[in-house]
């Protein structure tokens, strides 16, 4: 078995049987990062010492028989999750020297079950972006084609999993930031229902949309991670007080008899023919598994994207106001308080972040609130109602994750609107707060395509079992980039 | 009549009260930071660290509901928190979490007394929010610096906004005092104006005889009753003069200079903040069930106005005495506990002692009743001893001083000080004879026809006995010895 492309599920078998130690696995993983990451730039921080310490502790847990399914498994955290003593930059120059003094809930839960933290991954600055080109520390490359983007904003996490630099990774999804890069890099990416996973310690971009989720090489792995990170947290008042099912036990539930909707608005102009072909083929596979496939309509899909660019900047404007150089992060030298604020932000923040802060300031300004923010909230209700109506008829929805495959570096940087369009199929799920997963659906022109499965709130076990059945019926999850040769050349 | 008298002040108050909760509004840091070193009462939440989230303090919500109910407000089924966006170093998140659109209480009223007349003022809203940190600007080598202490950041604040129903500085002051009294009765605020745990902003404009309301001016951060009154007096005068001389007033925010006793312009309307309020996405709407409201209502203590009326009726006290006894909750509590401690002392007598000697001791010592060593039970025992003639009233006052400072049972103190009243004729006769011998002048005055002089002689006897002699017996013996005045 190739350790680097093995799933956590497969590795756990080796670890439990003591055929492999967590420390050996950690060393092999760190070596691979060392070998590959100069070209990929998926990591902002490699936590080698921490990884080895975690691994030894994991080996002890396993030796004592206290290991769980994720004990000893390498994991990378998007650099937007607060980790005590480890840099948490959010991909921003303004936080390049920031080292938190606390660990957030998800990072703590993952550490408690014995995962091995190998590093913090690169990302679009403050999770604002769809290509990772907005990172303050340089873009991540797509392991399938180093001239292409890995997607964003969790591009580092996606690329690291796709390239075998880690077994598991955590990302965050505000408008598609887990699912879109998962699709671009051929890995599994799950955005849980809003409130399913605590956001405590997740540095906020848009608080009513942000959600933490896994990027993995198999659906089983994603289910196993969700089991650990899901559940109520008194530190996050928006986290739901609902029991967490044993997702990994529910993966084998049959597809036969399920009603699956195909939203017509998700197959519109501007979509790659290759993407449509792969997604249609995927739908046929579900039909073959006995699903009842029917067309549904989500009429407010186009408006979801435009209102997303009202609501998310509004929340971001407030969330990013704390980066003023007073308490942490960089502080630009200046004569007085106000010029300190101004200069710190001027040098610390990138163009896209500034653009969204301005947008957010504008839509909340006196005289504009009703026309923009309030109106957007009303449309958000309509988007949610679209999904309510659809889920009254079907158990889940099948759709492409993105209209295209990974695009070239620099291809869309000059046109923000073109860039925003790559999230057109992922944003509605965030606006409605529902769950969604992107699962590999094969290649077109040698690049991965993602199938997106959307489910009602708290129906993660439904979409995960569908994704698992699909994964079992195909071999797409076993496709890997030809990295060694590319790197060597 | 001058033109100035045609304008009537229109005044409203926004009072900020720090709540007495143990922990802060949205985190578990201790809210009481008095004397703590800077930034020692902080955590990722109240210092605005990236990724930290607020969680509402349930006790603060209860206090908000309690106050809103005490102020006769409607409690909406749902209220919510908003973000108020502005930049300042002492505001660690760059926004303040406050209740803007949907406060916890609305449309109430409060009664207050001014010159013996009861008035009513409307309460527009009661809402909850978090306090900010504190900035200090200091000169340091290499230039001026700003130091920020976040101990106060996130301390629960309640804002109570009155309707513009107050028509004079006196009324504003009386309103503020009545509100403070209620907040302290409820135990939601410590009433400490000096330390800023209670502070007021006032809005004032002048209304013309035709009923036209003039430009509104806000004076911020008044931290004493006097400041409220004086700032309003100054500002009303300033506005009157301006209007009389045909000037146009600016809508603005002004400050109050305590030393110069003037208001001064801080920020005009053009530079007013646009706070860009929007619903706080980190906190779900607050649902307040009828059961919660009922429960809180049930826990409501008797409020000062009700108690004052009851004291007059139940204990036959004068309105003045009832007012003194109910000015602070603990005084009234103390009084009633003393009344209930026994049956031998009339409530009026206890009221006299509490409002008189005991209050004097409180004022002189700077200690509150709670901080003093006396208890309602020991006071009642003392007054029983006086009532039964065991000790004289004068001796009682000495005992009271001891009990206030050091505590203890009155019987023990009386014995210790040897104050038990001497009523035996023999002992008092000896004292009387000595007083007559030592006070020839007074005796001569009495004999010369000034009957009042006997009072002074009784006093001398009391003094000679160190307050122990029974004054009635002393007087009787003196009269026997000296005969009627002028004889």
Summarize the structure in short.
Chain A has 489 residues and is α/β, with parallel strands linked by helices. Chain A has helices at 8-16, 22-40, 48-63, 105-112, 155-162, 179-185, 219-229, 273-288, 301-319, 337-348, 351-364, 370-393, 416-420, 427-432, 460-473, 483-488; strands at 43-46, 74-78, 116-121, 168-172, 188-191, 212-216, 259-263, 292-296, 396-400, 435-444, 447-455. The longest helix of chain A is centred in the last third of the chain and has 24 residues, at 370-393.
What's the CATH topology label of the domain at 3-253 and 452-488 in chain A? Answer: Amidase signature (AS) enzymes
**Widest β-sheet, arrangement of strands of chain A:** 1-3-2-4-6-5-10-11-9-7-8
Number of domains of chain B: 3
Strand content of chain B: 15-25%
How many beta-strand elements of chain A?
11
Query: Given the helix and strand composition of chain B, which structural class is it?
Result: alpha+beta
Main sheet: strand order of chain B: 5-6-9-1-10-11-12-13
Number of strands of chain B: 15
Please summarize the sheet with the most strands of chain B. 8 strands, mixed
Strand content of chain A: 5-15%
* Chain-averaged pLDDT of chain A: 96
Q: For the terminal residues of chain A, how far apart are their CA atoms?
A: 25 Å
Mean pLDDT figure of chain B: 92
């Amino acid at each position: 078995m190739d350790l680097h492309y093995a799933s956590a599920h497969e590795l756990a078998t080796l670890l439990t049987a003591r055929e492999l130690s967590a420390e050996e696995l950690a060393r092999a993983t760190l070596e691979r990062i060392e070998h590959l990451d100069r070209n990929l730039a998926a990591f902002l921080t490699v936590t080698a010492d921490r990884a080895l310490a975690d691994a030894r502790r994991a080996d002890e847990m396993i030796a004592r028989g206290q290991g769980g399914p994720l004990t000893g498994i390498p994991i990378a955290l998007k650099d937007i999750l607060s980790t005590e003593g480890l840099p948490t930059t959010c991909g921003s120059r303004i936080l390049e020297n920031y080292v938190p003094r606390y660990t957030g809930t998800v990072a703590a839960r993952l550490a408690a079950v014995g995962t091995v933290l190998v590093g913090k991954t690169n990302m679009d600055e403050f999770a604002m972006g769809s290509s990772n080109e907005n990172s303050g520390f340089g873009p991540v490359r797509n392991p399938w084609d180093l001239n292409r983007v890995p997607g964003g904003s969790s591009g580092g996490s996606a690329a690291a999993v796709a390239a075998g630099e880690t077994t598991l990774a955590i990302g965050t999804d505000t408008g598609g930031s887990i699912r879109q890069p998962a699709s671009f890099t051929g890995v599994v990416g799950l955005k849980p229902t809003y409130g399913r996973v605590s956001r405590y310690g997740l540095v906020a971009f848009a608080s009513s949309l942000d959600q933490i989720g896994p990027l993995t090489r198999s659906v089983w792995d994603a289910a196993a991670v969700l089991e650990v990170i899901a559940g109520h947290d008194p530190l996050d008042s928006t986290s739901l007080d609902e029991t967490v099912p044993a997702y990994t036990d529910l993966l084998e539930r049959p597809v036969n008899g399920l009603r699956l909707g195909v939203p017509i608005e998700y197959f519109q102009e501007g979509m790659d023919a290759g993407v449509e072909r792969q997604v249609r083929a995927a739908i046929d596979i579900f039909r073959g598994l006995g699903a009842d496939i029917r067309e549904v309509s989500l009429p407010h899909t186009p408006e979801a994207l435009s209102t997303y660019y009202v609501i998310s900047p509004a929340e971001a404007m407030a969330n990013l106001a704390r980066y003023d150089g007073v308490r942490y992060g960089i502080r630009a030298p200046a004569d007085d308080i106000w010029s300190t604020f101004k200069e710190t932000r001027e040098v610390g923040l990138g163009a896209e972040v500034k653009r969204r802060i301005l947008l957010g300031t504008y839509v909340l300004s006196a005289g504009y609130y009703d026309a923009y923010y309030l109106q957007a909230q009303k449309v958000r209700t309509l988007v949610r109602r679209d999904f309510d109506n659809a889920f009254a008829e079907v158990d889940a929805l099948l759709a492409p994750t993105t209209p295209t495959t990974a695009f070239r570096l620099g291809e869309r940087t000059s046109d923000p609107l073109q860039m925003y369009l790559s999230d057109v199929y992922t944003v509605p799920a965030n606006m409605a707060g529902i769950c969604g997963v992107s699962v590999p659906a094969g290649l077109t022109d040698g690049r991965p395509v993602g199938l997106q499965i959307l489910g009602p709130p708290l129906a993660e076990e439904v979409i995960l079992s569908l994704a698992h059945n699909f994964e079992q019926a195909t071999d797409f999850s076993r496709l890997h980039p030809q990295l060694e040769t590319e790197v060597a050349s | 009549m001058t033109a100035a008298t045609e304008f009537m002040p229109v005044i409203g108050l926004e009072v900020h009260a720090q709540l007495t909760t143990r922990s802060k509004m949205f985190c578990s840091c201790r809210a009481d930071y008095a004397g703590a070193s800077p930034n020692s009462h902080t955590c990722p939440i109240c210092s605005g660290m990236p990724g930290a989230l607020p969680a509402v303090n349930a006790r603060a919500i209860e206090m908000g509901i309690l106050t809103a109910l005490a102020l006769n407000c409607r409690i909406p089924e749902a209220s919510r928190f908003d973000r108020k966006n502005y930049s300042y170093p002492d505001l660690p998140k760059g926004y303040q979490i406050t209740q803007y659109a949907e406060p916890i209480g609305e449309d109430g009223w409060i009664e207050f007394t001014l010159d013996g007349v009861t008035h009513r003022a409307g309460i527009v809203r009661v809402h909850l929010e978090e306090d900010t940190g504190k900035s200090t600007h200091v000169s340091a080598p290499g230039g001026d610096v700003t130091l920020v202490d976040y101990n106060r950041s996130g301390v629960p604040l309640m804002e109570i906004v009155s309707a513009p129903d107050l028509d004079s500085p006196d009324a504003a002051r009386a309103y503020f005092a009545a509100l403070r009294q209620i907040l302290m009765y409820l135990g939601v605020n410590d009433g400490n104006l000096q330390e800023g745990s209670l502070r007021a902003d006032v809005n004032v404009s002048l209304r013309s005889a035709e009923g036209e309301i003039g430009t509104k001016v806000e004076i911020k951060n008044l931290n004493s009753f006097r400041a409220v009154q004086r700032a309003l007096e100054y500002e009303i005068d300033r506005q009157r003069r301006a209007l009389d001389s045909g000037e146009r007033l600016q809508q603005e925010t002004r400050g109050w200079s305590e030393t110069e006793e003037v208001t001064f312009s801080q920020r005009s309307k053009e530079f007013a903040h646009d706070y860009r309020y929007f619903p706080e996405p980190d906190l779900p709407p607050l649902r307040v069930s009828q059961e919660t409201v009922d429960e809180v209502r049930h826990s409501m203590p008797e409020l000062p106005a009700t108690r004052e009326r009851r004291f007059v009726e139940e204990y036959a006290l004068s309105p003045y005495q009832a007012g003194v006894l109910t000015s602070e909750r603990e005084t009234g509590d103390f009084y009633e506990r003393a009344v209930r401690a026994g049956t031998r002392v009339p409530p009026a007598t206890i009221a006299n002692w509490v409002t008189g000697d005991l209050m004097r001791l409180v004022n002189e010592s700077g200690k509150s009743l709670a901080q003093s060593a006396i208890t309602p039970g020991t006071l009642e025992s003392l007054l029983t001893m006086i009532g039964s003639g065991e000790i004289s009233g004068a001796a009682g006052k000495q005992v009271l001083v001891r009990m206030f400072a050091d505590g203890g049972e009155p019987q023990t103190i009386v014995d210790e000080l040897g104050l038990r009243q001497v009523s035996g004729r023999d002992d008092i006769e000896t004292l009387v004879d000595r007083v007559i011998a030592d006070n020839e002048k007074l005796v001569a005055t009495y004999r010369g026809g000034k009957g009042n002089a006997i009072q002074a002689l009784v006093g001398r006897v009391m003094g000679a006995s160190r307050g122990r002699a029974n004054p009635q017996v002393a007087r009787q013996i003196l009269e026997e010895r000296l005969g009627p005045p002028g004889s």
